[in-house]
Amino acid sequence: MKKKVVSILMAAAMVLSLAACKGQSDQAKTEETAKTEDAKSKDSGDVKIAYIVKAMSDQFWIDMKEGADKAAEELGVVVDFQAPEKETDVEVQIQYVENAITSGYDAIVLSAADSKALNPSIVKANDAKIPVILVNDTIDMEALEADGGKVATYVGIDQYEAAALAGSYAVENVKSGKVALLEGIAGVDALDQRLAGFKDKIEESGDFEIVASQTANCDRNEAFNVVQNILTSNPDVNVIWAVNAEMGQGAIQAIEQSGKSGISVFDFDASDDDMETIENGTLVGSVAQYPDLQAKAAIQACLDVLDGKTLEEHTVTKAELITKDNI
Fold this sequence. Notes:
Blueprint: H1 2-43, E1 48-52, H2 59-75, E2 78-82, H3 90-102, E3 107-110, H4 119-127, E4 132-135, H5 141-146, E5 153-156, H6 159-174, E6 177-183, H7 189-205, E7 208-215, H8 220-233, E8 239-242, H9 245-258, E9 264-268, H10 272-279, E10 285-288, H11 291-306, E11 314-316, E12 320-323
Parallel strand pairs: 1-2, 1-3, 3-4, 4-5, 5-11, 6-7, 6-8, 8-9, 9-10
Antiparallel strand pairs: 10-12
Helix pairs in contact: 2-11, 3-4, 6-7, 8-9
């Protein structure tokens, strides 16, 4: 009788063991199938990226969108490119980020319209396990960390060093004079760095005097009016630095309207209008930062972080000063 009981217990144990093994095997197959399905989803273009920039108001952003569309096709992902009407529409941009989170995008590429205002939205994306990649515009990283947020990487140029290229060129080629600075939108870190990069090189030389520094909010018409007023107050200005192409073009129009000559204008972004005015001599130089390359690198960064890779804090992209010598 005891032998029969032992035999029954051993048989039962064997059945349970086989069932457990089968269960583990089935679970492993399920997990492997899930991994395979995830891989298939990525290959079939189911990775969705919300690409949110500051505006579509100038050539730079148009070029970036074209670069993003091309990169999306090459890399096999879906990219939803979004932008407010104006670079000052910070609240609209915040809403785009919030919508991207609730809509369940796989990643967010962001060119922040303010260095701190987007921080709460970035934290929400972090909580939702949606990686955020900054492109073109940096933010106040200390403030973001204090808020408990993080970004995967910043894709773009070193704004300060890029602007310093123009400042160094002015020092070497203009030699001396009086300078007017056209500032960008308040609270945008990248624009502040562009202002500082040029300004520091000018001031280090000791041969230039900064007689005006005013914002024109990255707008061509506003820059036209600002420069008209500056030239009225300071008729001997001979160097103008604008932190974006729209303001540079507005400055050129104001100079032409005033009938003045001998003013060296420098700006940032190397737009199509910039290329034309460098060729005809009314713009001395413009910093090119290749938005199409930034877009491709940003989308690739999304795929890398989704694949579990740890990215460098700064994914550096190309910048150079375009003048009549290398146009």
